[in-house]
Design goal:
Blueprint (H helix, E strand, L loop, with lengths): L11 H24 L9 E11 L9 H8 L4 E3 L5 E5 L3 E2 L4 H22 L3 E3 L21 H13 L5 E6 L3 E6 L10 E8 L4 H19 L4 E2 L2 E2 L5 H8 L5 E2 L5 E2 L2 E2 L10 H10 L16 H7 L3 E2 L1 E7 L5 E11 L4 H19 L11 H14 L4 E4 L3 E4 H19 L4 H18 L3 H12 L3 H14 L9
């Protein structure tokens, strides 16, 4: 949910000053785009973040992240919104050679440290989009991690909503209808976030490619079918997160409200600057905290950007020498089921983003944004069972599309960048292809378990964690 801030209450003077600084920094960013100031690289750099849960001996969420993080004392592991959650960050690596193996080794090394420290506390860590055993009673304000940022987010979201309660309405096999006066449903949604550093000249194409593949990526990786005991969407994180943080910003050209958690309003036309301009014109400041950080790193612009949770978020970053660069943060994928599954999902996203961004005919010229939007929500709801519109093919089954076209395209693209064939053969042939042949992603496995054993979510979670700890990809799991 972002970096800590100095306080949780804001005066009207502070709000006005924040807005002034935000506009000044946006003008500076525009000048940087005009001057082509951003780091240029012949290759790519990628990294990832993984959000996870702590559970107790009954596979129930354990609100122990403060003690866990203090005992662990690891620079790559940080708190999240609720006391049940934590986040692992990995260092970025050049997208070549053994990138996938190196990413896996780093994540596994940190995860082993987390598991060992959790075991000392009679806990287990869990990687899953929505923990099947989490209940509404668990996700109450008392479970919020102690943080000025989180307290301010809650207060400011309700201020923007004119104190209207949060209403969660999701329909799948069951229907969830919930009204509450907090944002903690958001903490039920844990994800895998992939970062891809890109050059300014290609950034709009990469953003659009990431938008177009968001639907198939969700279908491939879905792992969140249950919330509060209800069977909902294959990836219920999508509607749950969007509704929990609902504070509309503006209407798009179709009159559709565009929220703070969003696929967006359209493709980028020329530049990622368009999205930063949208940040200032379309969204009121949610955390108007005045930064002490040096202004040449545009802290207010980055803070504002961090409170708009686009499923593909443009990122302004800086290297060790203070030079700015651009990244896409792809946020659609859930956490879990295993580290091999997540590394494969990351490879699928990276390969497809690069492939589609560099095709001679831009796919955004062949698929309207409305079509992209429909695909995204169809895949979130139906997972690998969805039918979507695809450039040049018309309406297709997303499972067949992934198996026959998209995964092979991503693999060949990564091979052309110099990634090792052994890694690509494993992650694309032994993991992804078999997942698409069986149709068993995390969401499908969970639903199969309930079909066989009923809605015993404790047993489901215990079985899930046992298989997760075994490390075999989800397509090979049995119920």
């Amino acid at each position: 949910m972002g970096a800590e801030i100095g306080g949780s209450a804001f005066s009207e003077e502070a709000r006005a000053e924040f807005q002034r600084r935000l506009r000044d920094e946006t003008k500076t960013l525009k000048r940087w785009f005009d001057e082509r100031r951003f780091t240029y690289s012949e290759g790519f750099t990628g990294g990832l973040e993984v959000e996870a849960w702590l559970v107790d001996e009954n596979a129930l969420p354990a609100p122990e992240n403060e003690a866990f993080l203090a005992n662990l004392n690891h620079p790559l592991v940080v708190p999240e919104l609720s006391r049940f959650n934590f986040e692992i960050n990995t260092d970025p690596y050049a997208l070549t050679g053994d990138y996938l193996s190196k990413s896996r080794e780093t994540l596994e090394r940190v995860w082993r440290a987390c598991a060992a420290k959790a075991q000392e506390m009679a806990l287990r860590p869990a990687m899953v989009g929505i923990l099947p055993t989490v209940r509404d009673d668990d996700l109450q304000p008392v479970a919020m991690s102690p943080s000025n940022r989180y307290a301010a987010l809650t207060a400011e979201l309700f201020r923007l909503r004119n104190d209207a309660p949060v209403r969660i309405r999701i329909e799948g096999d069951d229907a969830l209808s919930l009204t509450c006066r907090h944002i903690m449903v958001e903490a039920a949604c844990t994800s895998l976030q992939v970062h891809l550093q890109i050059n300014q000249e290609e950034a709009a194409r990469f953003y659009n490619a990431s938008q177009i593949i968001a639907g198939p990526i969700i279908a491939a990786s879905a792992n969140s079918p249950f919330l509060y005991g209800n069977s909902l969407w294959a990836e219920s994180r999508i509607p749950a997160f969007e509704q929990a943080a609902e504070a509309f910003g503006f209407r798009d050209r179709h009159g559709r409200m565009v929220g703070r958690v969003t696929l967006g309003s359209d493709y980028a036309r020329r530049s990622l600057l368009e999205l930063f301009l949208e940040n200032i014109d379309g969204y009121p400041a949610l955390l108007p905290a005045l930064a002490e950080e040096k202004l040449e790193k545009l802290p207010h612009l980055r803070l504002q950007n961090g409170t708009i949770w686009r499923w593909n978020r443009p990122i302004l970053g800086f290297d060790g020498a203070g030079e700015p660069h651009l990244r896409i943060e792809h946020r659609t994928m859930p956490s879990g089921p295993t580290i091999p599954d997540m590394v494969a999902n990351m490879g699928l996203y990276l390969g497809l983003a690069i492939a589609l961004a560099r095709t001679e005919t831009p796919p955004e010229a062949e698929l309207s944004f409305d079509g992209c939007y429909r695909n995204f929500y169809a895949c979130a709801k139906e997972g690998l069972r969805a039918r979507i519109e695809w450039p040049g093919l018309g309406e297709v089954d997303v499972q067949a599309l992934l198996h026959d076209r998209l995964a092979p395209l991503a693999k060949e693209t990564l091979l052309s960048l110099g990634l090792t064939r052994a890694d690509l053969d494993y992650y694309f042939d032994d993991v992804l292809a078999r997942r698409f042949l069986t149709g068993r992603n995390g969401a499908e496995w969970q639903r199969n378990y309930v079909d066989l054993h009923g809605k015993d979510f404790q047993r489901l979670t215990e079985r899930y964690l046992t298989l997760q700890e075994g490390g075999e990809p989800v397509h090979a799991w049995t119920c």
